[in-house]
């Protein structure tokens, strides 16, 4: 039943001499997989137990990711969630997934701002039931951003989020995206916010990856990047490389960080560092960031992987071009 949400790769566009290992797109970890399998059968119990456990143990990063993935599954298979909400209408987990689903369904619509205002009651219900949980407030922040809420309203929601968890990654990403959207070209402001959040966070906090997310915003929102800012982009990438190294190789938990970092390193023309992140990523491909400009994130990943491997291949196996350092090779994900 896992085939419903796992896909294997097709051959990369640029073949290599290495054996092509299968890759998995958005593969669930060992805790989430049983809940998705049960949901495919129309059963909500394992999902309810999973989210209840993350709430009891204050595993906010896991709770955020699991709720997002469960909501994504419910976009095409919602019977189990409807049954859950009917059977346990006050369950904080059910309210959270329902709110995330409601927001996600509005996001790609041309009428997004108006639609998001209409789902406000579902988001409010999740925040009111959340207690110490910051994740519903992350959903609220995303809703406010998509609905073009003013600064005062966003700051009110932000205060509620950080009061519950001052270093929650998802809430910081929502704030970073709001800043980037409300102030086009505000590269320095985005980097300032991300760097401060990372510096203030504990060593094991995932929010320490926020600067590389700010780099992604800088690189994908247009505008020229000055030499001073370029140094900060490289420093943010180096910080994320150190964070990635703290996790085991071929682990689904840091997969999104490593996919994002690979994207950024390619854009920064650092193919050797990108190749190392690809090695650490193993088979785990995530839709973000490869879905930024394509409906085929897996295909984009495979194309970029092939290009990175070609760029770092020894001279005798690559042809005439030979990279001078880990910072060269004009590879750009959007060029494929």
The strand order across the widest sheet is: 1-2
Number of helices: 18
Global mean pLDDT: 89
Order of helices and strands: EHHHHHHHHHHHHHHHEHHH
Q: Count the beta strands.
A: 2
Beta fraction: under 5%
What Rg, in angstroms, do the CA atoms define? Answer: 20 Å
Distance between the termini: 33 Å
Main beta sheet: strand number and arrangement? 2 strands, parallel
Helix/strand/pairing category: mainly alpha
Approximate shape: globular
Low-pLDDT residue intervals, each spanning 5 or more residues: 1-20, 318-330
Helix content: 55-70%
Q: What is the oligomer described by this structure?
A: single chain
Features:
mainly alpha, 18 helices, globular
Overview of the molecule:
This protein has 336 residues and is mostly helical. It has a domain at 187-336. Helices cover 63% and strands 1% of the residues. Helix 2 (45-56) runs antiparallel to helix 3 (60-74) and helix 5 (92-107) runs antiparallel to helix 7 (120-130). The two termini are 33 Å apart.
Offer a concise description of the structure.
With 336 residues, this protein is mainly alpha-helical.
Helix/strand layout:
Elements (H helix, E strand, L loop, with lengths): L23 E2 L6 H9 L4 H12 L3 H15 L4 H9 L4 H16 L4 H7 L1 H11 L4 H12 L4 H14 L4 H14 L4 H14 L9 H11 L6 H19 L9 H13 L3 H11 L2 E2 L1 H4 L6 H16 L2 H4 L18
Parallel strand pairs: 1-2
């Amino acid at each position: 039943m896992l085939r419903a949400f796992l896909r294997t790769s097709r051959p990369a566009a640029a073949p290599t001499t290495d054996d092509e290992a299968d890759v998995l797109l958005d593969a669930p970890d060992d805790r989430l997989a049983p809940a998705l399998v049960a949901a495919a059968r129309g059963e909500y119990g394992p999902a309810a137990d999973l989210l209840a456990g993350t709430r009891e143990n204050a595993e906010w990063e896991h709770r955020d990711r699991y709720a997002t993935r469960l909501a994504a599954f419910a976009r095409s298979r919602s019977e189990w969630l409807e049954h859950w909400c009917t059977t346990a209408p006050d369950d904080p987990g059910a309210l959270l997934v329902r709110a995330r689903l409601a927001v996600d369904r509005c996001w790609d619509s041309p009428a997004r701002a108006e639609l998001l205002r209409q789902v406000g009651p579902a988001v409010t219900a999740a925040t009111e039931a959340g207690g110490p949980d910051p994740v519903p407030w992350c959903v609220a922040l995303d809703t406010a951003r998509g609905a073009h809420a003013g600064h005062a309203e966003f700051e009110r929601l932000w205060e509620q989020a950080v009061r519950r968890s001052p270093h929650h990654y998802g809430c910081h990403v929502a704030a970073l995206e709001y800043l980037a959207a409300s102030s086009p070209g505000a590269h320095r402001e985005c980097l300032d916010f991300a760097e401060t959040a990372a510096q203030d966070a504990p060593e094991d906090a995932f929010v320490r990856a926020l600067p590389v997310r700010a780099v992604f915003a800088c690189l994908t929102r247009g505008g020229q990047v000055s030499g001073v800012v370029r140094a900060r982009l490289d420093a943010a990438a180096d910080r994320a490389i150190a964070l990635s190294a703290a996790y085991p190789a071929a682990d689904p938990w840091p997969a999104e960080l490593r996919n994002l970092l690979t994207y950024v390193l390619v854009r920064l023309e650092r193919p050797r560092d990108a190749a190392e992140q690809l090695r650490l990523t193993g088979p785990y491909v995530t839709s973000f960031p490869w879905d930024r400009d394509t409906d085929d994130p897996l295909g984009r990943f495979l194309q970029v992987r092939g290009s990175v491997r070609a760029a770092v291949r020894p001279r005798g196996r690559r042809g005439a071009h030979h990279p001078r350092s880990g910072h060269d090779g004009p590879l750009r994900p959007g060029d494929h």
